Amino acid sequence: MSVLKNPLFIICCIAFWVNQAIERAWEIYIPWVHAYLDDLLAMPVIFGITLQIFRWIHPLKAKFRFSKKQLIIGWIYFSLIFEVFLPSRSDIYTADPWDVVCYGIGTIAFYIFINNPSITEK
């Protein structure tokens, strides 16, 4: 199955889009959703898009998957950029350790439900 057809990937993308539409178009902010939903959805969406691109260009094609080490490095990198580097340089970013937890949960969900090698594609 293509990453772009994976149910969890699709749900994460739609949930992100709906949340952004509600916040930006109607200016409705639900505190916990506003604070953490995007962080929870970020890793499945970002890793999912990246995995699909790799599957288009990598010799293994649909059998390609990210290793645990690659995902952990990605999670750490994303956490450092958005929770340490950017908040230290700009007032529009806020460091929040719970965001790092959400990134971690999203990474685990990606690993379990999306990062599987596809056996149906050639």
Quick gist of this model?
With 122 residues, this protein is mainly alpha-helical. Helices cover 70% and strands 0% of the residues.
Please characterize this protein's 3D structure.
Keywords: Membrane, Transmembrane, Transmembrane helix. With 122 residues, this protein is mainly alpha-helical. It is built from 4 helices and no strands. The protein has one domain (3-113). Helix 3 (68-89) runs antiparallel to helix 4 (97-113). The chain is globular.
Helix-strand layout with pairing:
Layout: H1 7-25, H2 31-57, H3 68-89, H4 97-113
Helix pairs in contact: 1-2, 2-4, 3-4
Transmembrane segments: 41-58, 70-86, 98-114
Protein name: Magnesium citrate secondary transporter
Keywords: Membrane, Transmembrane, Transmembrane helix
Total separate domains: 1
Instruction: Tell me the strand percentage band.
Output: under 5%
Summarize the main sheet.
none
Give the C-alpha Rg: 16 Å
Mean pLDDT: 94
User: How many individual β-strands?
Assistant: 0
Distance between the termini: 10 Å
User: Please, how many helices?
Assistant: 4
Q: What class would the helix/strand composition place it in?
A: mainly alpha
Order of helices and strands: HHHH
Q: So what's the overall shape?
A: globular
- Uncertain segments are none
Proportion of helical residues = 55-70%
Organism: Belliella kenyensis
Protein name: Magnesium citrate secondary transporter
Keywords: Membrane, Transmembrane, Transmembrane helix
Transmembrane segments: 41-58, 70-86, 98-114
